[in-house]
Design a protein that fits this description.
By secondary structure, the protein is of the alpha+beta class. It folds into 2 domains: about 90 residues, Phosphorylase Kinase, domain 1; about 200 residues, Aminoglycoside 3'-phosphotransferase, Chain: A, domain 2, CATH 3.90.1200.10. About 45% of the residues lie in helices and about 15% in strands. It contains 14 helices and 10 strands. The strands form 3 sheets. Strands 1-2-3-5-4 form a 5-stranded antiparallel beta sheet, with helices on both faces. It has a 3-stranded antiparallel beta sheet with strand order 6-8-9. It has a two-stranded antiparallel ribbon with strand order 7-10. A hairpin with a 3-residue loop joins strand 2 and strand 3. It is globular, with a radius of gyration of 20 Å.
């Protein structure tokens, strides 16, 4: 039996390729009585197509703590949203690696489909995306109580305390870094209710199929970074990686969600973007529309 290699650090895991893992993956799927495996080319964790109907996701030791989060989210969400999510078929461990076997969603990612979609198609999908996110945020299930962080207010305070250093590490220009403390101080995030969050609701993690000429949402996946927190934290990824600065599209999505953006909403979204675990404004400024002025206030208006 071929074993999975040890992966004690992030750097060691980054050096492993999906192809190099294939012998161990094939050994695992063979022991489960499953068919051929083909690696997917994208994703932060190794993911493999298993036959036509299944997907195998691997969690190396350094990421094993994310497996219970994804399993719990998938088990709670299945059949509860207006967009399909994968059903869990098996969960286990081999050589210190966790694995999750799940149903395969149909279609292509919205990221791949996006350049081929007409403006009309995009506008039709926008409110459906909002409805799906609203359904996720409205779920109440005690099983979700295990999701991090245990205290949302404490999490936000911790992110706030290290925000300047975080953005300095990403290479953000000091002209922007100098604005961060005052901007965050000026935004009242309040004490919002805690809801289940995807945290990476983006084109990469939404699937679409084509019914004739019309695209339809066919799946939402990748729940290992899920959390519990303020609903507007999810609109960070929505504004950055779904609408991408297209405020007309964002308004349509938010209408489907059941809310209407205003200046305060935009400022809160930018504050959460600055505090987000994976925030990288150095990159955002390269791929999103430039603000009218070199100020964070202008950024909030341009992107949300």
């Amino acid at each position: 039996m071929t074993s999975f290699p040890p992966a004690g650090t992030e750097a060691e895991f980054d050096a492993l390729t999906r192809q190099a893992l294939l012998p161990a993956v094939t050994s695992l799927t063979g022991s489960l009585g499953l068919g051929d495996v083909v690696p997917f080319t994208e994703g932060s964790l190794p993911v493999y197509a298993v036959g036509e109907d299944l997907v195998l996701k691997l969690f190396p030791p350094v990421h094993r703590g994310e497996l219970p989060t994804e399993r719990t989210m998938l088990e709670v969400l299945h059949g509860k949203l207006p967009i399909p999510t994968p059903a869990v078929r098996d969960v286990g461990e081999r050589d210190g690696w966790g694995y999750l076997l799940m149903e395969r969603l149909r279609g292509e990612t919205l990221k791949d489909a996006w350049p081929k979609l007409s403006t009309e198609d995009k506008h039709r999908l926008a409110p459906e995306l909002g409805e799906a996110l609203a359904a996720l945020h409205s779920l109440h299930d005690r099983r979700l109580d295990v999701l991090a962080p245990p205290d949302w207010a404490a999490f936000i305070a911790e992110q706030r305390a290290k925000a300047v250093e975080h953005h300095r590490r990403t290479g953000l220009d000091e002209s922007w870094i100098g604005q961060i403390p005052a901007f965050l101080d000026s935004v009242d995030l309040g004490s919002p209710p805690v809801v289940p969050l995807h945290t990476e609701f983006m084109r990469d993690h939404v699937m679409v199929t084509h019914d004739g000429e019309r695209p339809r949402l066919s799946g939402l996946f990748d729940f290992e970074p899920a959390m519990r927190g303020a609903a507007e934290y999810d609109f960070v990824a929505v504004g950055l990686f779904v609408s991408g600065g297209d405020k007309d599209f964002l308004r349509r999505l938010l209408a489907g969600y059941g809310t209407e953006p205003d200046e305060d909403f935009a400022r809160r979204c930018l504050a959460y973007a600055l505090l987000h675990v994976y925030s990288n404004f150095t990159w955002y400024f390269k791929v999103l529309p430039a603000p009218g002025e070199p100020t964070l206030e202008s950024v909030s208006r341009a992107w949300w």
